[in-house]
Amino acid sequence: MLEPMNTPVWEDGGWRGLPRLEGTLKADFCVVGLGGSGLAAVHELLRLGRRVVGIDAGGVAGGAAGRNGGFLLAGLAKFYHQTVRAHGRDFAQRVYRATLDQIDQMARETPGAIRRVGSLRIAASEEELQDCWAHLEALRTDGFQALPYEGPEGQGILLPDDAVMNPLLRCRTLARQAQEAGALLFEHSPALEIGGREVRTPEGRVRCSGVLVAVDGGLERVFPELLGRVRTARLQMLATAPIPPRFPRPVYRRWGYDYWQQLPDGRLALGGLRDLGGEAEWTLSSEPTLQIQQGLEGLLAELGVRAPITHRWAASVGYTPTGLPIAEEVRPGVWAIGGYCGTGNVLGTLLGREAAWALCGERRPGAVFFA
């Protein structure tokens, strides 16, 4: 039986919460969605001297932004050599460099939430191992850091510039920082109507000059016009009681379908097996299921971990057929970012910053997606 919980291991119970939006506010811009990408946009708009209101249907980072595995990986969801093949070397290089820069900036902004430990891509088959070598060669050819790896976790490649974080701590820290800088932020204030000049919630309105919707999972529900271009999937995780130190770096295995990291206090956060659930995991539901959770227990046993399971949770994330995120003006004055294909912690932050400039009618220096 599954424990009656859907709480991520990152939740420490210390968040005091934000008020609901009540009445009418005026601002230069409204940001809908207070996850990592939305908060990055809020901060960038503040740096650009704009007045900002941010709202969320739930709590800060209540969606995938605070319920993911905490990986900070450079590049897109597709591995680097795959991105080169699909979208060209110039684009792949620009994205990879830009996301590396984002990891550096994220670490400066919230150093208490981020650990610069690199990451491992581990092969679960000979075919995948050969793909790891192609991945390694492509990165090295273009001047990026990567090393062959063989150790207790298995064989694959080490990406020394990647990192891990506590995603909920990072987002809540960003929210507090944004409030201190003058942003008006509100929780439990779902956007019922979204237009380029006004956003309406159950108890309030924001009148503004433009809107950014920074939502990953469920983006096609917010914008039916995006149906077919983005689709929501459920990603599931669990966490254990502390175990002795075993995994100094996060592990991304079996083409990214399995992943885990050991927290500083010894707890193991492990997720994946979305492919085990098949079509059922393409859903707007973010409730853990018995099938996937039992599969994750099996993965724990395979790793030799026998500690009690303390947390089980799930999150909704957006996927696109191309592997490229949604980043565009979907309605007059309304911009949308999302569809990060399961790797939105860094990519979403980059897009949030770029989208902030686009809202202002400008191009962020070095922009990749809003060029």
Looking at the structure, what is the overall shape?
Answer: globular
* Helical run tally: 9
CATH domain topology of the largest domain: FAD/NAD(P)-binding domain
Strand content: 25-35%
The CATH C-level class name of the largest domain: Alpha Beta
CATH homologous superfamily designation of the largest domain: FAD/NAD(P)-binding domain
Structural class: alpha/beta
Distance between the termini: 50 Å
Total discrete domains: 2
Q: Strand sequence of the main sheet, in spatial order?
A: 7-8-6-16-17-18-15-19
Descriptive notes:
The chain is of the alpha/beta class. The protein folds into two domains: 21-117 and 165-230 and 321-371, 3-Layer(bba) Sandwich (FAD/NAD(P)-binding domain), CATH 3.50.50; 118-164 and 231-319, D-Amino Acid Oxidase, subunit A, domain 2 (D-Amino Acid Oxidase, Chain A, domain 2), CATH 3.30.9.10. Helix content is 29%, strand content 26%. It has helices at 36-47, 80-87, 89-109, 126-141, 167-180, 219-222, 274-277, 290-302, 344-359, and strands at residues 23-26, 29-32, 52-55, 71-72, 114-115, 119-122, 147-151, 154-159, 163-165, 184-186, 193-194, 198-200, 204-207, 211-214, 231-240, 251-253, 258-262, 268-272, 309-319, 326-331, 334-338. Helix 1 (36-47) runs parallel beside helix 9 (344-359) and helix 2 crosses helix 3 (89-109). The mean pLDDT is 97.
